[in-house]
Amino acid sequence: MLLNDLKHDLRHAWRLMRGRPTPALLAIGAIVLAVAVARSRALPRWAGIVYAIGLVAWCPLLSPVLRVLDGLLIGIGGIALAWALRRPPPPPDAPGFHPHESGAHPVAPQP
What we know:
Layout: H1 2-17, H2 21-40, H3 45-56, H4 64-86
């Protein structure tokens, strides 16, 4: 009897926890992505922020109108980031982050 109760409680706990961490992990990942885009100076900062806001606000329980607006934010930010990735790299004398150069750069401080 005790073993059956324990199995029932474990199944019930698994059903409750199964979908809970996903939105939180998505929000954390979106924030980390926005910070990385903003610090890189190689991609448009506004696109990373718009994309992150769309991912942070994502929730399947929202009304259909809010889900469409949320999808537009994700789409606009994602398309802008993808378009920026298609650009040729900036010339070496341009200001900003140059990943092909060795030495100090604004993302990682030197010890």
